[in-house]
């Protein structure tokens, strides 16, 4: 008899819903960092080596599908089901800009020119 394969969602301590995207920064003078996107609407920044929580970016009203950090890990970006992409100050957690879209934002990235 064949066993049925079951997909298990990726979870991360601190998130209340499954994690859908992870992004590691390049190595910076302060180490490297991890940002996680989750269906709970709150991207989280962590120490890339230890996984220790650094902060949460609060402001989205829907699942966050994508997140990333610039090459210096000073800026963060996130894309959400609330039809917005947001730019964040990774040091303070402040929202710097919100970009409204006509549909769910499922991807975000920094160009090499901006980094």
From TrEMBL:
GO cellular component, one term: SMN complex
Swiss-Prot/TrEMBL GO biological process terms: spliceosomal snRNP assembly
Record flagged with keyword Nucleotide-binding: no
Cross-referenced Gene3D superfamilies: YVTN repeat-like/Quinoprotein amine dehydrogenase
Protein keywords: Repeat, WD repeat
Annotated signal peptide: none
Keyword Repeat: yes
WD repeats: 57-98
MF GO annotations: RNA binding
Name under which the protein is recorded: Serine-threonine kinase receptor-associated protein
């Amino acid at each position: 008899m064949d066993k049925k394969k079951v997909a298990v969602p990726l979870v991360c301590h601190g998130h209340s819903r499954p994690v859908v995207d992870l992004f590691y920064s390049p190595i910076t003078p302060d180490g490297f960092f991890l940002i996680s996107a989750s269906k709970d609407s709150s991207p989280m920044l962590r120490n890339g080596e230890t996984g220790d929580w650094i902060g949460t970016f609060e402001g989205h009203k829907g699942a966050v599908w994508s997140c990333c950090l610039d090459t210096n890990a000073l800026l963060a970006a996130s894309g959400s089901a609330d039809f917005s992409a947001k730019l964040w100050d990774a040091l303070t957690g402040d929202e710097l800009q919100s970009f409204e879209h006509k549909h769910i934002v499922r991807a975000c990235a920094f160009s090499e020119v901006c980094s």
